[in-house]
Amino acid sequence: MKTTKKIHTGIFRDGGAGAFAKRRFRERRKKLMAKEGRLMAITGVPYGPGGKTTWAYAYCPTYQEPAMMYLTGINQNNVILLLDPNSKMSDEILFVDSRDRKMEFWEGVRFGVGDDQSLKEVRSVTGIQDVRDIREFKDVLKERFLQQKKKAMATLWLEGTRKGKPCAITTDHNYDFKKKLEGWLRSWKAPALQNIMKTHFELRLPLDKYDVTNALKAQEITGNGFKVLLKNFRDFKNEYQVQGFLEGQMLMHTPFGLSYPSIVASGSNATILHYTKNDDDFSKSEMMLIDFGIRWMTMHADITRTFPVSGRFNPMQKILYEIVLRAQIAVEKKARAGVMIDELNKVCWDTINQGLEQRFTALGGKFKLQYKGRPHGVSHLMGEQEHDGDPFRNYLQQPMKSGWMISNEPGLYGEFRLSLNGKTYDEKIGIRIEDNLVMTPTGCQNLSSKIPKTVKQLEKLMTPV
Length: 465
Ligand SMILES: [Mn+2]
What we know:
Layout: H1 19-36, E1 39-43, H2 66-72, E2 80-83, E3 92-96, H3 101-107, H4 116-126, E4 130-133, H5 137-147, E5 153-155, E6 159-162, E7 165-168, H6 173-187, E8 194-195, H7 197-204, H8 209-231, H9 239-251, E9 263-266, E10 287-292, E11 295-296, E12 299-300, E13 303-308, H10 315-334, H11 341-359, E14 366-369, E15 381-382, E16 405-408, E17 411-420, E18 423-432, E19 435-439, E20 444-446, H12 455-462
Parallel strand pairs: 1-5, 3-4, 5-8
Antiparallel strand pairs: 1-2, 2-3, 6-7, 9-10, 10-13, 11-12, 14-17, 15-16, 16-19, 17-18, 19-20
Protein backbone atom coordinates (compact mmCIF):
# COMPACT_ATOMS: atom_id res chain seq x y z
CA MET A 1 0.00 0.00 0.00
CA LYS A 2 1.39 3.37 -0.93
CA THR A 3 -0.34 6.51 0.13
CA THR A 4 1.28 9.88 0.39
CA LYS A 5 -0.16 12.18 2.99
CA LYS A 6 0.40 15.93 3.04
CA ILE A 7 3.79 17.60 2.78
CA HIS A 8 6.85 17.75 5.00
CA THR A 9 6.32 18.45 8.65
CA GLY A 10 9.08 21.01 8.12
CA ILE A 11 6.84 23.17 6.00
CA PHE A 12 3.95 25.07 7.46
CA ARG A 13 0.75 24.83 5.42
CA ASP A 14 1.17 28.49 4.56
CA GLY A 15 4.66 27.96 3.23
CA GLY A 16 6.70 26.49 0.49
CA ALA A 17 4.55 23.87 -1.09
CA GLY A 18 2.82 25.91 -3.79
CA ALA A 19 4.05 28.26 -6.51
CA PHE A 20 2.21 31.19 -4.87
CA ALA A 21 3.86 30.63 -1.50
CA LYS A 22 7.29 30.23 -3.09
CA ARG A 23 6.87 33.50 -4.99
CA ARG A 24 5.61 35.29 -1.90
CA PHE A 25 8.46 34.20 0.37
CA ARG A 26 11.10 34.95 -2.29
CA GLU A 27 9.54 38.40 -2.78
CA ARG A 28 9.81 39.08 0.96
CA ARG A 29 13.47 38.06 1.05
CA LYS A 30 14.21 40.24 -1.98
CA LYS A 31 12.57 43.25 -0.36
CA LEU A 32 14.58 42.75 2.83
CA MET A 33 17.80 42.44 0.82
CA ALA A 34 16.96 45.56 -1.22
CA LYS A 35 16.34 47.57 1.96
CA GLU A 36 19.34 46.32 3.92
CA GLY A 37 21.82 45.82 1.08
CA ARG A 38 24.20 43.86 3.32
CA LEU A 39 25.02 40.38 4.45
CA MET A 40 22.43 39.00 6.89
CA ALA A 41 22.02 35.77 8.83
CA ILE A 42 18.71 34.94 10.51
CA THR A 43 18.24 31.98 12.79
CA GLY A 44 15.21 29.81 13.35
CA VAL A 45 14.39 28.39 16.77
CA PRO A 46 17.23 25.90 17.28
CA TYR A 47 15.40 23.60 19.70
CA GLY A 48 12.09 21.75 19.65
CA PRO A 49 8.94 22.48 21.68
CA GLY A 50 9.66 22.43 25.41
CA GLY A 51 13.40 22.65 24.77
CA LYS A 52 13.60 26.09 26.28
CA THR A 53 11.16 28.87 27.08
CA THR A 54 11.13 31.69 24.57
CA TRP A 55 9.15 34.87 24.25
CA ALA A 56 7.95 33.52 20.91
CA TYR A 57 4.57 31.96 21.39
CA ALA A 58 4.17 28.19 21.12
CA TYR A 59 0.53 27.28 21.80
CA CYS A 60 -0.03 26.15 18.23
CA PRO A 61 1.37 23.75 15.63
CA THR A 62 4.03 26.30 14.74
CA TYR A 63 7.14 26.53 16.80
CA GLN A 64 9.37 28.82 14.85
CA GLU A 65 10.93 32.24 14.95
CA PRO A 66 8.22 34.39 13.28
CA ALA A 67 10.87 36.13 11.15
CA MET A 68 11.96 32.76 9.76
CA MET A 69 8.33 31.81 9.19
CA TYR A 70 7.72 35.12 7.44
CA LEU A 71 10.74 34.77 5.15
CA THR A 72 10.63 31.05 4.36
CA GLY A 73 7.52 29.31 5.71
CA ILE A 74 9.82 26.71 7.26
CA ASN A 75 8.59 25.20 10.51
CA GLN A 76 11.55 23.06 11.51
CA ASN A 77 14.03 23.59 14.29
CA ASN A 78 17.70 24.33 13.69
CA VAL A 79 17.66 26.24 10.41
CA ILE A 80 19.56 29.39 9.42
CA LEU A 81 18.91 31.67 6.48
CA LEU A 82 21.84 33.56 5.00
CA LEU A 83 21.00 36.50 2.74
CA ASP A 84 23.82 37.95 0.68
CA PRO A 85 22.35 40.61 -1.64
CA ASN A 86 25.67 41.63 -3.21
CA SER A 87 26.89 38.14 -3.98
CA LYS A 88 27.61 37.10 -7.55
CA MET A 89 26.88 33.51 -6.52
CA SER A 90 23.67 32.58 -4.69
CA ASP A 91 22.03 35.47 -2.84
CA GLU A 92 20.26 33.13 -0.40
CA ILE A 93 21.45 30.01 1.36
CA LEU A 94 19.38 27.81 3.63
CA PHE A 95 21.23 25.79 6.27
CA VAL A 96 19.51 22.68 7.62
CA ASP A 97 20.41 19.53 9.57
CA SER A 98 21.55 16.44 7.75
CA ARG A 99 18.84 13.95 6.97
CA ASP A 100 18.13 11.63 9.86
CA ARG A 101 15.79 8.76 9.07
CA LYS A 102 15.71 7.57 12.67
CA MET A 103 14.43 10.96 13.77
CA GLU A 104 11.93 10.95 10.91
CA PHE A 105 10.45 7.73 12.29
CA TRP A 106 9.54 9.76 15.39
CA GLU A 107 8.78 13.17 13.98
CA GLY A 108 7.88 12.77 10.33
CA VAL A 109 9.79 13.85 7.24
CA ARG A 110 12.17 16.73 7.85
CA PHE A 111 14.39 18.71 5.55
CA GLY A 112 17.89 17.35 5.45
CA VAL A 113 21.10 17.37 3.46
CA GLY A 114 23.30 14.38 2.68
CA ASP A 115 20.63 12.64 0.62
CA ASP A 116 20.07 13.59 -3.05
CA GLN A 117 16.36 12.89 -3.02
CA SER A 118 15.84 14.96 0.11
CA LEU A 119 17.93 17.83 -1.23
CA LYS A 120 15.86 17.87 -4.41
CA GLU A 121 12.72 18.03 -2.30
CA VAL A 122 13.98 20.85 -0.10
CA ARG A 123 14.79 22.90 -3.20
CA SER A 124 11.50 22.27 -4.89
CA VAL A 125 9.44 22.83 -1.77
CA THR A 126 11.19 26.00 -0.54
CA GLY A 127 12.32 27.48 -3.84
CA ILE A 128 15.74 28.10 -2.24
CA GLN A 129 18.31 26.48 -4.52
CA ASP A 130 21.41 26.73 -2.35
CA VAL A 131 20.80 24.39 0.62
CA ARG A 132 23.67 23.34 2.86
CA ASP A 133 24.53 21.50 6.05
CA ILE A 134 24.10 23.69 9.12
CA ARG A 135 27.51 22.49 10.37
CA GLU A 136 29.08 24.40 7.46
CA PHE A 137 27.42 27.66 8.44
CA LYS A 138 30.41 29.27 10.14
CA ASP A 139 32.81 28.52 7.28
CA VAL A 140 30.39 29.70 4.61
CA LEU A 141 29.61 32.83 6.58
CA LYS A 142 33.30 33.64 6.95
CA GLU A 143 33.92 33.11 3.26
CA ARG A 144 30.96 35.30 2.30
CA PHE A 145 31.91 37.88 4.89
CA LEU A 146 35.48 38.25 3.64
CA GLN A 147 34.31 38.53 0.03
CA GLN A 148 32.37 41.70 0.80
CA LYS A 149 33.74 45.15 0.19
CA LYS A 150 32.09 46.62 3.28
CA LYS A 151 32.99 43.82 5.69
CA ALA A 152 29.80 44.32 7.70
CA MET A 153 26.91 42.15 8.58
CA ALA A 154 23.56 42.11 10.34
CA THR A 155 21.13 39.81 12.08
CA LEU A 156 17.85 40.15 13.94
CA TRP A 157 17.44 40.59 17.67
CA LEU A 158 14.76 42.28 19.70
CA GLU A 159 15.75 45.57 21.25
CA GLY A 160 14.08 48.82 22.11
CA THR A 161 13.80 51.23 24.97
CA ARG A 162 11.87 50.86 28.19
CA LYS A 163 11.39 53.98 30.30
CA GLY A 164 13.90 55.74 28.05
CA LYS A 165 16.62 53.16 28.61
CA PRO A 166 17.83 50.81 25.86
CA CYS A 167 17.12 47.15 26.49
CA ALA A 168 16.86 43.86 24.66
CA ILE A 169 15.29 40.43 25.03
CA THR A 170 18.35 38.53 26.15
CA THR A 171 16.82 35.13 26.82
CA ASP A 172 15.81 33.99 23.36
CA HIS A 173 17.40 32.23 20.38
CA ASN A 174 17.90 35.49 18.48
CA TYR A 175 20.06 36.89 21.25
CA ASP A 176 22.06 33.67 21.59
CA PHE A 177 22.68 33.76 17.85
CA LYS A 178 23.69 37.42 18.00
CA LYS A 179 26.24 36.67 20.75
CA LYS A 180 27.70 33.84 18.70
CA LEU A 181 28.01 36.02 15.57
CA GLU A 182 29.59 38.84 17.61
CA GLY A 183 32.24 36.46 18.87
CA TRP A 184 33.07 35.39 15.33
CA LEU A 185 33.11 38.98 14.04
CA ARG A 186 35.56 39.96 16.78
CA SER A 187 37.91 37.19 15.76
CA TRP A 188 37.65 38.41 12.14
CA LYS A 189 38.42 41.96 13.35
CA ALA A 190 35.14 43.18 11.87
CA PRO A 191 32.97 46.13 12.87
CA ALA A 192 30.01 45.67 15.19
CA LEU A 193 27.06 43.53 14.21
CA GLN A 194 24.03 45.48 13.01
CA ASN A 195 20.35 44.86 13.75
CA ILE A 196 17.72 44.42 11.01
CA MET A 197 14.80 44.62 13.47
CA LYS A 198 13.54 47.99 12.25
CA THR A 199 13.59 47.07 8.55
CA HIS A 200 12.18 43.65 9.24
CA PHE A 201 9.16 44.98 11.13
CA GLU A 202 8.63 47.72 8.54
CA LEU A 203 8.20 44.96 5.97
CA ARG A 204 6.43 42.38 8.10
CA LEU A 205 3.82 44.40 10.00
CA PRO A 206 1.73 45.78 7.12
CA LEU A 207 -0.38 42.80 6.11
CA ASP A 208 -0.92 41.93 2.46
CA LYS A 209 -4.26 40.90 0.94
CA TYR A 210 -3.60 37.22 1.55
CA ASP A 211 -2.85 37.88 5.23
CA VAL A 212 -6.05 39.93 5.62
CA THR A 213 -8.09 37.15 3.98
CA ASN A 214 -6.55 34.68 6.44
CA ALA A 215 -7.12 37.04 9.37
CA LEU A 216 -10.78 37.32 8.34
CA LYS A 217 -11.07 33.54 8.22
CA ALA A 218 -9.65 33.39 11.77
CA GLN A 219 -12.31 35.93 12.83
CA GLU A 220 -15.08 33.93 11.19
CA ILE A 221 -14.17 30.69 12.98
CA THR A 222 -13.63 32.50 16.29
CA GLY A 223 -16.94 34.35 15.93
CA ASN A 224 -18.88 31.21 15.04
CA GLY A 225 -17.45 29.48 18.12
CA PHE A 226 -18.68 32.38 20.24
CA LYS A 227 -22.18 32.31 18.75
CA VAL A 228 -22.56 28.56 19.30
CA LEU A 229 -21.28 29.00 22.86
CA LEU A 230 -23.87 31.65 23.71
CA LYS A 231 -26.70 29.57 22.24
CA ASN A 232 -25.71 26.69 24.52
CA PHE A 233 -24.66 28.73 27.51
CA ARG A 234 -27.51 27.53 29.76
CA ASP A 235 -25.84 24.11 29.93
CA PHE A 236 -22.68 25.31 31.67
CA LYS A 237 -21.92 25.57 35.38
CA ASN A 238 -18.22 26.34 35.52
CA GLU A 239 -15.42 28.06 33.62
CA TYR A 240 -13.66 24.98 32.27
CA GLN A 241 -16.85 23.65 30.74
CA VAL A 242 -17.12 26.95 28.88
CA GLN A 243 -13.45 26.80 27.86
CA GLY A 244 -13.70 23.18 26.69
CA PHE A 245 -16.83 23.78 24.65
CA LEU A 246 -15.67 27.06 23.09
CA GLU A 247 -12.19 25.79 22.19
CA GLY A 248 -13.64 22.53 20.86
CA GLN A 249 -16.08 24.41 18.64
CA MET A 250 -13.26 26.55 17.26
CA LEU A 251 -10.63 23.82 16.93
CA MET A 252 -13.03 21.69 14.89
CA HIS A 253 -12.63 24.30 12.17
CA THR A 254 -8.90 25.03 12.14
CA PRO A 255 -5.77 22.88 11.95
CA PHE A 256 -3.67 25.87 13.04
CA GLY A 257 -4.58 25.86 16.71
CA LEU A 258 -5.55 28.55 19.17
CA SER A 259 -3.95 31.97 19.18
CA TYR A 260 -3.38 31.54 22.95
CA PRO A 261 -5.01 29.67 25.85
CA SER A 262 -8.44 31.21 26.48
CA ILE A 263 -9.22 33.39 29.47
CA VAL A 264 -12.63 32.32 30.84
CA ALA A 265 -13.35 34.48 33.89
CA SER A 266 -16.63 34.77 35.75
CA GLY A 267 -17.57 37.48 38.23
CA SER A 268 -14.65 39.01 40.09
CA ASN A 269 -12.16 36.67 38.34
CA ALA A 270 -12.53 38.97 35.34
CA THR A 271 -10.66 41.66 37.25
CA ILE A 272 -7.50 39.54 36.99
CA LEU A 273 -6.19 40.58 33.58
CA HIS A 274 -4.38 37.35 32.71
CA TYR A 275 -6.68 34.94 34.56
CA THR A 276 -6.16 31.46 33.09
CA LYS A 277 -7.09 29.14 35.99
CA ASN A 278 -10.56 28.81 34.49
CA ASP A 279 -11.69 26.49 37.30
CA ASP A 280 -14.45 28.37 39.12
CA ASP A 281 -18.17 27.70 39.28
CA PHE A 282 -20.36 30.65 38.43
CA SER A 283 -23.79 31.91 39.38
CA LYS A 284 -26.62 33.42 37.34
CA SER A 285 -26.07 36.93 38.66
CA GLU A 286 -22.47 37.20 37.45
CA MET A 287 -20.91 38.53 34.28
CA MET A 288 -18.46 36.46 32.26
CA LEU A 289 -15.41 37.70 30.38
CA ILE A 290 -13.86 35.50 27.71
CA ASP A 291 -10.67 36.32 25.76
CA PHE A 292 -10.16 33.82 22.95
CA GLY A 293 -9.24 33.23 19.32
CA ILE A 294 -7.73 30.90 16.77
CA ARG A 295 -5.08 31.07 14.07
CA TRP A 296 -5.67 30.66 10.38
CA MET A 297 -2.42 30.12 8.47
CA THR A 298 -0.06 32.49 10.30
CA MET A 299 -2.71 35.06 11.22
CA HIS A 300 -4.23 35.36 14.70
CA ALA A 301 -7.62 36.41 16.03
CA ASP A 302 -7.62 37.99 19.52
CA ILE A 303 -11.20 38.60 20.67
CA THR A 304 -12.75 39.46 24.03
CA ARG A 305 -16.43 39.46 24.87
CA THR A 306 -18.22 40.08 28.18
CA PHE A 307 -21.82 39.04 28.82
CA PRO A 308 -24.19 38.14 31.66
CA VAL A 309 -24.32 34.48 32.70
CA SER A 310 -28.12 34.69 32.93
CA GLY A 311 -28.47 36.01 29.39
CA ARG A 312 -29.87 39.31 30.70
CA PHE A 313 -27.76 42.28 31.83
CA ASN A 314 -28.91 43.77 35.13
CA PRO A 315 -29.34 47.58 34.95
CA MET A 316 -25.92 48.34 36.45
CA GLN A 317 -24.12 45.80 34.26
CA LYS A 318 -25.78 47.33 31.20
CA ILE A 319 -24.70 50.86 32.13
CA LEU A 320 -21.09 49.82 32.74
CA TYR A 321 -20.97 47.62 29.65
CA GLU A 322 -22.15 50.43 27.43
CA ILE A 323 -19.54 52.80 28.86
CA VAL A 324 -16.86 50.38 27.65
CA LEU A 325 -18.58 49.80 24.32
CA ARG A 326 -18.77 53.57 23.70
CA ALA A 327 -15.03 53.85 24.28
CA GLN A 328 -14.37 50.99 21.88
CA ILE A 329 -16.45 52.64 19.16
CA ALA A 330 -14.67 55.97 19.75
CA VAL A 331 -11.28 54.26 19.29
CA GLU A 332 -12.43 52.58 16.08
CA LYS A 333 -13.58 55.95 14.73
CA LYS A 334 -10.22 57.52 15.46
CA ALA A 335 -8.04 54.67 14.17
CA ARG A 336 -6.38 55.11 10.78
CA ALA A 337 -2.93 55.09 9.23
CA GLY A 338 -0.95 58.08 10.49
CA VAL A 339 -2.51 58.12 13.97
CA MET A 340 -0.45 56.86 16.94
CA ILE A 341 -1.67 54.12 19.28
CA ASP A 342 -1.02 56.48 22.19
CA GLU A 343 -3.61 58.82 20.65
CA LEU A 344 -6.05 55.89 20.70
CA ASN A 345 -5.17 55.37 24.37
CA LYS A 346 -6.12 58.95 25.11
CA VAL A 347 -9.48 58.63 23.34
CA CYS A 348 -10.17 55.31 25.04
CA TRP A 349 -9.44 56.15 28.67
CA ASP A 350 -10.86 59.69 28.44
CA THR A 351 -14.11 58.27 27.04
CA ILE A 352 -14.32 55.71 29.85
CA ASN A 353 -13.62 58.27 32.60
CA GLN A 354 -16.15 60.65 31.13
CA GLY A 355 -18.68 57.82 30.78
CA LEU A 356 -18.25 56.85 34.44
CA GLU A 357 -18.83 60.43 35.50
CA GLN A 358 -21.81 61.17 33.27
CA ARG A 359 -23.54 57.79 33.18
CA PHE A 360 -22.68 56.24 36.52
CA THR A 361 -21.62 58.75 39.18
CA ALA A 362 -24.39 61.07 37.99
CA LEU A 363 -26.92 58.37 38.94
CA GLY A 364 -25.45 58.08 42.42
CA GLY A 365 -23.12 55.18 41.55
CA LYS A 366 -19.98 54.60 43.63
CA PHE A 367 -16.92 52.75 42.41
CA LYS A 368 -13.37 51.77 43.23
CA LEU A 369 -11.15 50.91 40.28
CA GLN A 370 -8.43 48.25 40.47
CA TYR A 371 -5.80 50.57 39.02
CA LYS A 372 -4.67 54.17 38.74
CA GLY A 373 -5.01 55.95 35.43
CA ARG A 374 -5.53 53.06 33.07
CA PRO A 375 -5.52 49.27 33.46
CA HIS A 376 -3.65 48.44 30.23
CA GLY A 377 -3.08 49.79 26.73
CA VAL A 378 -6.05 49.81 24.39
CA SER A 379 -4.11 48.33 21.46
CA HIS A 380 -1.19 46.11 20.59
CA LEU A 381 0.14 45.11 17.20
CA MET A 382 -0.89 41.78 15.70
CA GLY A 383 0.03 39.56 12.76
CA GLU A 384 2.46 36.64 12.61
CA GLN A 385 2.14 36.67 16.39
CA GLU A 386 -0.83 37.45 18.58
CA HIS A 387 1.32 40.25 20.05
CA ASP A 388 3.53 41.27 17.17
CA GLY A 389 6.13 43.94 16.54
CA ASP A 390 8.70 45.32 18.94
CA PRO A 391 8.04 43.64 22.31
CA PHE A 392 8.96 46.86 24.15
CA ARG A 393 6.10 48.56 22.32
CA ASN A 394 8.06 51.60 21.25
CA TYR A 395 5.59 51.56 18.35
CA LEU A 396 2.96 53.22 20.58
CA GLN A 397 4.44 56.60 19.71
CA GLN A 398 4.84 55.94 15.97
CA PRO A 399 2.27 56.86 13.32
CA MET A 400 0.49 53.65 12.32
CA LYS A 401 1.03 52.34 8.80
CA SER A 402 -1.59 51.21 6.34
CA GLY A 403 -2.03 47.45 6.73
CA TRP A 404 -1.09 47.29 10.43
CA MET A 405 -3.42 45.05 12.40
CA ILE A 406 -4.10 46.10 15.98
CA SER A 407 -6.39 45.08 18.81
CA ASN A 408 -9.04 47.49 20.12
CA GLU A 409 -9.68 46.44 23.71
CA PRO A 410 -10.95 48.95 26.26
CA GLY A 411 -11.62 47.52 29.69
CA LEU A 412 -13.09 48.46 33.06
CA TYR A 413 -12.21 46.59 36.25
CA GLY A 414 -13.29 47.29 39.81
CA GLU A 415 -15.99 47.36 42.47
CA PHE A 416 -19.23 49.08 41.53
CA ARG A 417 -22.32 49.94 43.54
CA LEU A 418 -25.53 51.53 42.34
CA SER A 419 -29.13 51.80 43.57
CA LEU A 420 -31.79 51.97 40.91
CA ASN A 421 -35.57 51.75 41.32
CA GLY A 422 -35.29 50.58 44.90
CA LYS A 423 -32.75 47.87 44.12
CA THR A 424 -29.05 47.97 45.01
CA TYR A 425 -26.42 46.34 42.82
CA ASP A 426 -22.99 45.71 44.28
CA GLU A 427 -20.46 43.80 42.20
CA LYS A 428 -16.78 43.37 41.53
CA ILE A 429 -16.58 43.02 37.77
CA GLY A 430 -14.27 43.13 34.80
CA ILE A 431 -15.55 44.19 31.41
CA ARG A 432 -13.44 44.10 28.27
CA ILE A 433 -14.55 44.19 24.65
CA GLU A 434 -11.91 43.44 22.04
CA ASP A 435 -12.01 43.61 18.25
CA ASN A 436 -9.19 43.51 15.71
CA LEU A 437 -8.68 46.36 13.23
CA VAL A 438 -6.62 46.78 10.07
CA MET A 439 -5.48 50.34 9.31
CA THR A 440 -6.27 52.00 5.97
CA PRO A 441 -5.30 55.51 4.76
CA THR A 442 -8.78 56.84 5.53
CA GLY A 443 -9.84 54.77 8.55
CA CYS A 444 -9.80 51.13 9.48
CA GLN A 445 -11.43 47.84 8.65
CA ASN A 446 -12.96 46.15 11.69
CA LEU A 447 -12.27 42.47 11.03
CA SER A 448 -14.46 41.49 14.00
CA SER A 449 -17.57 43.41 12.93
CA LYS A 450 -19.61 40.20 12.61
CA ILE A 451 -18.96 39.01 16.16
CA PRO A 452 -21.95 40.13 18.28
CA LYS A 453 -21.25 42.69 21.00
CA THR A 454 -24.18 45.05 21.57
CA VAL A 455 -26.40 44.40 24.59
CA LYS A 456 -29.28 43.62 22.25
CA GLN A 457 -27.27 41.18 20.10
CA LEU A 458 -25.87 39.34 23.12
CA GLU A 459 -29.21 39.01 24.89
CA LYS A 460 -30.88 37.81 21.71
CA LEU A 461 -28.27 35.11 21.16
CA MET A 462 -28.74 33.87 24.73
CA THR A 463 -32.53 33.77 24.56
CA PRO A 464 -33.84 30.21 24.22
CA VAL A 465 -35.81 29.68 21.03
MN1 LIG B 1 -5.36 41.44 22.88
